[in-house]
Specification:
The chain has 2 domains: 122 residues, Urease, subunit C, domain 1 (Roll), CATH 2.30.40; 288 residues, TIM Barrel, CATH 3.20.20. Helix content is 39%, strand content 24%. The strands form 3 sheets. Strands 1, 2, 3, 4, 5, 16, 17, 18 and 19 form a 9-stranded mixed beta sheet that branches. Strands 6-7-8-11-12-13-14-15 form an 8-stranded parallel beta sheet. It is built from 15 helices and 19 strands. By secondary structure, the protein is α/β, with parallel strands linked by helices. The two termini are 40 Å apart. Bound molecules: zinc ion (ZN). The site of zinc ion has 6 residues, from loops.
């Protein structure tokens, strides 16, 4: 498709770093290659920005009854787990993970990671998501698949292995992914270090993980305080909460993405705020696995940085960020008995700009000149969104994946008028069906 695009007469909705979410009623946005060159109300200025960049034969996208907004950045997922969709439901987290998921994961082969990842990316693209923090092993396979699909990912590198019941770190495995990101990932993949949780490894191994984290200098990706059981066991074994335990091992910083954080003490929130940790809230997964209700309002008050995730398809069972925005807001309102908390613009910012920041893509998630063009087009000419009313409310409370008409990542259309441009969905569906039949 054309690398210079004029988005013409759209409602442009975007978060900002220094002011509330804004709505431009009749907005024009000029994109050249991967960059946004103009945003404003003047078509003339938008055209002139395109022409100045040497792009006279730009493509014009008509914005009648359409919204242009940043794509979502899903701050917590396990993309290959799409192959386990709907095969292990209605279990507790402990039974689900140890009884159903881990034994199947042991049998996964290369193609399972690849096609499972692509299946999730297809679902994400069709629901307006352009970026995911993917916590899973086989990072090289899924990273390469992401680049093929033109999709952004913060991908975990698995820097450890277990032999004869003893855990060892594996710097070479992390370095391989770090080098790939530096040299071949076209800026679409960033590495992070997989530190699954406080409960999967013995206590003494956390000193090794700390050393590995320092040596690699990349963000840490971890689950924290997902369940009451996790907290109780951590207190029993270490005399401290998971947040305190990870902080003691210097694994919390301003690049850490901590999923869940459902059961926190006031001191935990203080630590997460001071360390500027990104907390990825996963409302669907937390409710489905009966983990509980993360107190987002208390975290917001404590100054904790918040973003939003779906978790994997085995515990959600879809990757729809519209649903997560809606649930995050409703859950906060329902649990605090206060309808004014976690407003539409709060969760929209969590799902877009904050998600990108958490994943390490600082130049994405805001529609303004000089930012990278990760954009989605919403068609609100449908019963679900009509009449539009407040456009920010409409995105969070009314919209859904079927209203997503097109998605642009890094200036490329990966979905154009409901058609996937970079993923062969029929092939991916056939391969993942075969995998599910083998593993179920
Ligand atoms: Zn998870």
């Amino acid at each position: 498709m054309n690398r210079s695009v004029l988005f013409s007469d759209f409602k442009i909705i975007t978060p900002h770093d220094d002011k509330p979410v804004s709505v431009l009623e009749h907005g024009y946005c000029a994109v050249v290659d991967s960059m946004i060159e103009y945003v404003g109300e003047s078509k003339e200025n938008a055209v002139s920005a395109l022409e100045k960049s040497g792009h006279k034969d730009f493509f014009e996208y008509d914005g009648k009854n359409k919204i242009l907004c940043p794509t979502f950045a899903n701050a917590h997922g396990h993309t290959p787990m799409a192959i386990f969709r709907n095969i292990a439901d209605d279990y507790s987290l402990q039974d689900w993970l140890f009884g159903e998921i881990l034994p199947r994961e042991d049998k996964m082969i290369e193609g399972d990671f690849y096609y499972g990842h692509l299946l999730t990316l297809a679902e994400m693209i069709e629901s307006g998501t352009a970026c995911v923090a993917n916590m899973y092993s086989a990072g090289m396979i899924t990273s390469k698949a992401s680049v093929e699909a033109g999709f952004r990912v913060q991908q975990t590198a698995d820097g450890k292995f277990c032999k004869d019941g003893k855990w060892f770190t594996d710097y070479a495995n992390v370095k391989e992914l770090m080098d790939y990101c530096d040299q071949d990932a076209k800026g679409l993949v960033k590495p992070s270090l997989l530190v699954h949780s406080v409960y999967l490894y013995p206590g003494e191994f956390f000193t090794d993980l700390k050393d590995l984290s320092k040596k690699c200098g990349i963000p840490v990706s971890v689950h924290i305080s997902e369940t009451v059981t996790e907290n109780e066991n951590c207190l029993r074994d270490y005399g401290m909460t998971p947040v305190e335990m990870l902080d003691k091992h210097e694994l919390l910083s301003d690049t850490t993405v901590a999923a869940h954080c459902v059961h926190l003490t006031e001191n935990d929130r203080k630590i997460l705020s001071e360390r500027k940790v990104w907390v990825a809230h996963n409302p669907s997964s937390n409710m489905k696995l009966s983990s509980g209700f993360a107190d987002m309002v208390a975290m917001q008050k404590a100054g904790v940085r918040l973003c939003l995730g779906t978790d994997g398809a085995a515990s959600n069972n879809n990757q729809d960020m519209f649903m997560e925005m809606r649930l995050a807001s409703f859950m906060a309102k329902g649990t605090t008995l206060d309808p004014t908390v976690l407003k539409a613009e709060d969760v929209f910012t969590m799902a877009t700009r904050n998600g990108y920041l958490a994943c390490g893509f600082e130049n994405c998630g805001i529609i303004k000149q000089g930012m990278t063009a990760d954009l989605q087009i919403i068609d609100y000419d449908c019963p679900q969104m009509w009449p539009l009313g407040n456009p920010i409310s409409s995105l969070v409370y009314s919209c859904g994946p079927k209203c997503v008409e097109s998605v642009m990542i890094d200036g490329n259309f990966v979905l154009y008028k409901h058609e996937l441009k970079t993923i062969d969905l029929q092939k991916v569906k056939a391969e993942t069906k075969r995998t599910m039949e083998r593993l179920k």
